[in-house]
Amino acid sequence: MKRNPRRAYDRDGREIQPATVGSHLALGRRKIEIFCNDCRRYGNGIDVSDLPPETPIPDICLRYRCSVCGSKNLISRGDTHEHYALIDAARKGKT
Ligand SMILES: [Zn+2]
Description:
Elements: E1 8-9, E2 15-16, H1 21-26, E3 31-36, E4 42-47, E5 74-78, H2 80-92
Antiparallel strand pairs: 1-2, 3-4, 3-5
The structure holds zinc ion.
Zinc ion is lined by residues 36, 38-39, 41, 66, 68-69, 71.
């Protein structure tokens, strides 16, 4: 069976369900970042709250091209800045 490069697999080769826009929003997150495998730059703060909830987060990069080098060899994942901002807010107690 051919593996999807944008998915993770467990030890038995079963696909692990990716995060989706819906599961991302359910965690109080709205943003993703896209990383370029070729020039190793990334863009962050991309709001995904308008996308269909079933959209897998790792597939959002298919809609993009790197604005620096033009590559389509991209990775999309949860926005790291937002991730740490939420952890920080939780630690301080919500304001
Ligand atoms: Zn690039």
